[in-house]
Amino acid sequence: MAEETVAVGLMGLGTVGGGVVRLLAANQEKIRQKLGVAVEISKILVRDPSKPRQVEVARGLLAVDPADILEDDRIAVVVELMGGLHPAREYISRALARGKSVVTANKDVLAVYGPELYALAGEHRVDLLFEASVGGGIPVIHPIREGLAGNRLYEVMGVVNGTTNFILTRMSAGGQDFHAALAEAQALGYAEADPRADVGGDDAARKIAILASIAFDTIVTYDDVYVEGITGVTPADIAYGNELGYTLKLLAIARQVEGEVEARVHPAFLPQGHPLAAVNDVFNAIFVRGDAVGQTMFYGPGAGQMPTASAVVGDIVEAVANIRHGSCSRISYPGADRRPIRPMGDVRCKYYLRLTVQDQPGVLARIAGVFGDHGVSLASVIQKKTVDGLAELVLVTHEVKEEDFRRALSVIAGLPVVRRIENAIRVEEEWQ
Amino acid sequence: MAEETVAVGLMGLGTVGGGVVRLLAANQEKIRQKLGVAVEISKILVRDPSKPRQVEVARGLLAVDPADILEDDRIAVVVELMGGLHPAREYISRALARGKSVVTANKDVLAVYGPELYALAGEHRVDLLFEASVGGGIPVIHPIREGLAGNRLYEVMGVVNGTTNFILTRMSAGGQDFHAALAEAQALGYAEADPRADVGGDDAARKIAILASIAFDTIVTYDDVYVEGITGVTPADIAYGNELGYTLKLLAIARQVEGEVEARVHPAFLPQGHPLAAVNDVFNAIFVRGDAVGQTMFYGPGAGQMPTASAVVGDIVEAVANIRHGSCSRISYPGADRRPIRPMGDVRCKYYLRLTVQDQPGVLARIAGVFGDHGVSLASVIQKKTVDGLAELVLVTHEVKEEDFRRALSVIAGLPVVRRIENAIRVEEEWQ
Fold this sequence. Notes:
Two copies of one chain form a homodimer.
Chain A: E1 5-11, H1 15-26, H2 28-35, E2 38-45, E3 62-63, H3 67-70, E4 75-80, H4 88-97, E5 101-104, H5 107-124, E6 128-129, H6 141-147, E7 153-159, H7 162-174, H8 178-187, H9 196-199, H10 202-216, E8 226-227, H11 235-243, E9 246-257, E10 260-271, E11 283-290, E12 294-301, H12 305-324, E13 348-358, H13 363-373, E14 378-385, E15 390-397, E16 400-401, H14 402-413, E17 418-427
Parallel strand pairs in A: 1-2, 1-4, 2-3, 4-5, 5-6, 8-10, 10-17
Antiparallel strand pairs in A: 7-9, 7-11, 9-10, 11-12, 13-15, 13-16, 13-17, 14-15
């Protein structure tokens, strides 16, 4: 009797695709034992079959027509690794509608079209699995959707972009400026030639949209996320923060607050004892808080060929297990129940502020007065004398409503004694 | 039409049991939405129904006869929270044999009788879920069994006992000795009146037996684990380690090495940059390495009523989802394939050694000579002058086979210039 086999169609054979092929081959026997069936890649969609590949695959497996996968009823699981919005959205939709389970690593498509794709998967009772879309090899999507299901989760906060974390780690450790650290990241292959999606915060914004959706069981898309990148961060700010007991990270934050959802990505100071403060280099970590579990954190490699392939293969194993047991779509997808997104002006947090001011008596009192008028109180102050009658002033506020802080800041910027607003960086202090 | 309901039987209504009752009630609606069915506790086994409880339950739910749960065919899921070996083993076996899925937080019973219980669950094609048995509320069992299934995992290393981690954190931060730190832990409710299972390492040994079994897909039981507790640790050792760049933790370690499995629990120095070194107080974390994912870590509260209840309820949700979809036992249990356990004498690691010696020329040369005769080379040395012609000598070796180190040590102990072997602590250095 021929052994039972589940056929998988791969769409895309780039870095991650090659890793998936290699990993499935290397762990074939282990996976077969675990599942009781063999998993076999029966077709791989590529643009150019004649292109040389890092990984060896039989020429007969390669296809250029997506229909060879999408319309082949022997293929039960489609693994989408092309990236980008289109045609990924269309291919995933077609696969789901045809009753195939889909595994994807594509954060872009989920952050924008997640709601329609989740609905389609639910409707056709197939799996749409996306562990690799956030945090590379770190198991975090499944733990949030399943293991923590007994909780009401109210906060997800993460270091979810390895490129920016590497840059900030270098800036913190070596005192390099942003451009030097970026150049080093590029030389090491940790940053792309066009690094905008990473350093501008968009990549992290896509990931937090996905995490917020599954953690809070609502719909949060990329457009809902407030985004600031790290290009304005300087070694001086990092050094002052350090003096105040803080580490700087690019944080992706989602919270449920009074029936609304906050979703934002920006540089932020964390207390040095915070578990996320110790996440360095290209590592990622996602910190999750729930009413029962308290705080928990998932740490690991946020990108890379084999870590990402690890997550994809984990999802393939789950999809096949579910197909074999007729139990696809066991856990429901984020609901159509769309809770309101809190406007950024209403978000509350602490602020670090660095100013260049005239070095004369009464300046601090003046600035504190303006803050006081706007309901902003100060937690700490560092003043350093600099040259030419100018001083550098570093303030940390107590918790403040974003729009109140912004209003106060615009008044302060207009004070004759204030030469320059050097930087304003949020502080995320509360965690224990 | 009456709504579909899945009935759950609870065995034990102590701290965790009360938390489970509370959490299921609080998240009833959320869980119903997620599953499409309601989950209802229909019976609770207790010793004394008249005992006052922290949590309110209808008197009619309480039962003193286990048969009221085990032989009630309406009950589909049995949640065992009694702890201990007996009668937990017998009740779990009876439930599984009767086709019920079982959720348990009982590390003791799994570390000893895991193999027979896994086999029984597999045979009857029901679920035996035990997320709460290790790491309290941290999702770690499922990620290892499922999310990382595409990997060949070769190392699991964890801080898995909150009591000892609290004690070591206090000893490190405050310079307290072991007994003072233990008394503080007891006063705070972090250590039991009889703390032996925690401080002696047995609790951690049970957990690493479970983790090793599922990570390596083999059978490792409590008896296979080498155990040393933390009672011999002193503030002096912690301070010297600190000087050398190390943090002291009680580590539970399992590795696959050359076809054998290492499983051990003992105090160990970690480099201060290791992700586990930052795990403080009663927190736990489990660090996992695999061929594809590289390194990943799961962090959170290792104990406590609600965190543990969170893990139990997550398992109940999964068990019910599987029952509803007829997909219990989707992922296979650790195999009967029992790889050999590496004898402790064959294990290789670095050693920190603290000695009191006579403060005279040639002592270090003499000691280094004995080590050299046994193939042990030294990586670093600290010598401090103390009183009365005696000096304190701290050495760190390069990697060495345990039995070679032990032999060298017994020769060194007999040297006339050596007054006392103060302490020998393993060093786990490699991680990046």
